[in-house]
Amino acid sequence: MNSFEKLVRAAFGLSLGVAVALLFLAIHRPVPAHAGRPLQAGACFNAPAAADPTDSVCISNVIVTFSGTSPENQFVVSWRSQTSQKGSVILNGKTFHDVRGADHRGTTHYIPVTNLAAKTDYVFDIVSGDETYTRGGEHWTVQLGPAIQPATPYVVIGHVKNPDGSEADGAIVYAQLRDGDDQDTNGRSALLSALVSVADGGDLFNINVETARTPNHQNRYAYNPDGDRVLIAAVGAQGNANKQFKISDLHPPKPPPSLMLSSSGTGDAITATPTLLPPTATPTHSPTLTETITPTLTKTARPPTKTPEPLPTETPNVPPTFENVPTMAPDQATRLAATPNTTLVAIPVGDNAEAPRTRVFGGVPNIQPPASEPNNTLLLVGVAVVLLVGAVLLGLAAFFAARRS
Questions:
Q1: Strand runs (DSSP E) across 114-216, as ranges?
Q2: Alpha-carbon Rg of the chain, whole angstroms?
Q3: Could you please report the per-residue DSSP string of 63-79?
Q4: What is the pLDDT of residue 251?
């Protein structure tokens, strides 16, 4: 065997070995996690307020009603800061402001991002105070699923109060449905949320759980109001509160509970019960007769030649008069006297209650498709195929060289 044949065979063996190794790596190469879809922390609403608000950033209310791009397609970004400051969200160069106004300053930040497209991934950053936070360079992402037509609203309501009993203005309320009967959808839902605003109706939160989706936002979260539960987490300037309820216990006509914030983070839940005032006696109005005095008319006769018999005194028969005294039936007056004064509280009516529309600030973002990742697997397979072809050619060259010799 001459030196040329040795060189050809060595090249053939090397090419074949490299090709096999590359094919093995391509087949068994682990698929990396999608760099554009980091999961948010499940306890974002329990993270304490810090100088860096990253841990407290929550994505909630991912609602896709229409296919394509629509103002009704949205998600909400919320977080907390240690000091009172402005907050906004930057998505594709567009700035979205707090629902309470572009100039709002506070320690809670609640920002709807609207005019979005179904089945689209979005990447965004937050601005809190004078700093822009990019989550360590990874950015926050959210994936919108397909359009799901809304069903009949099923609203859960409740109150949020500070430890001293005052209204917790600016508190953010998160709701997460949780399977409790091993039926319908298992596990937990994506987060829903609402903002407590005294200017928009006091300390009562109002969340339509029919808009709940699975954690990946691809499907509707099916639930049983009497068998499943809902976690209500309220965060405000004076503390937190976390309580689980049976879903139907927060739905009218049942009285809404009150969540009391506390610095410990657990808070208290006080169930509202109707209070009846003691009965108050109501006087019964009876007709009062007014006495009418009629003068007596006396006739004086001229001196008679004989004494006439005295004439009788005439009193006109005048019916009694009443001074605008209201009359009522005796049984009606009796019922009025025995009826206690009851304080009535107006609450939303069952399934017909409609959640207030969220005020939205901001325009249409410039939607850009997510950047595609290079397909390294196909590259490895291509190189392996080229090397295999080269190895075959080298093998044929070695074969013919051996025959010629």
A1: 116-117, 121-128, 131-133, 140-143, 155-161, 172-178, 192-195, 204-208
A2: 41
A3: E--SSSEETT-EEEEEE
A4: 96
Mean pLDDT value of segment 108-113: 98
User: How many percent of the chain have pLDDT more than 70?
Assistant: 60
Within 13 A of 12's CA, how many CA atoms are on the CB side? 14
Q: Could you tell me whether strands 69-70 and 204-208 are parallel, antiparallel, or unpaired per DSSP bridges? A: unpaired
Element (H, E) at 241: strand 239-246
What class does CATH assign to 44-143? mainly beta
Closest alpha carbon to 138 in 38, 32, 31, 33: 38
State mean pLDDT over 194-214. Answer: 90
CB atoms under 10 Å from CB of 183, counted, come to 12
- List the chain domain ranges: 3-29+376-404, 44-143, 155-270
Q: How many residues does the chain have?
A: 405
- In this prediction, residues 285-306 reach a mean pLDDT of 45
Q: What secondary structure letter does DSSP report for 68?
A: S
Q: Of 205, 232, 222, which Cα lies nearest the Cα of 358?
A: 205
Identify the helix (H) or strand (E) that includes residue 83: strand 74-85
Bridge partners of 259?
Answer: 160, 269
Which residue, 247, 229, 228, 192, is CA-closest to 63?
192
- Going by pLDDT thresholds of 50, 70 and 90, the confidence category of residue 203 is confident
Three-state secondary-structure class, residue 244: strand
Given this model, what pLDDT does residue 244 score? 95
pLDDT bin (cut points 50, 70, 90) of residue 2 is low
Q: How far apart are CA 213 and CA 221, in angstroms?
A: 5
For the beta sheet containing 155-161, the strands, ordered from the edge strand earlier in sequence to the opposite edge, are 204-208, 155-161, 258-260, 268-270
Question: What confidence tens digit (pLDDT) does each residue in 224-274 have?
Answer: 999 999 999 999 999 999 999 999 999 999 999 999 999 876 777 776 544
Among 355, 347, 359, 345, which Cα is nearest to 154's? 355
Number of C-beta neighbours around residue 81 at 10 A: 22
Least confident range of 120-134, 217-231, 369-383: 369-383
Tokens at residue 180, please? 């409790």
Q: Phi, psi (5° rounding) for residue 11?
A: -65, -40
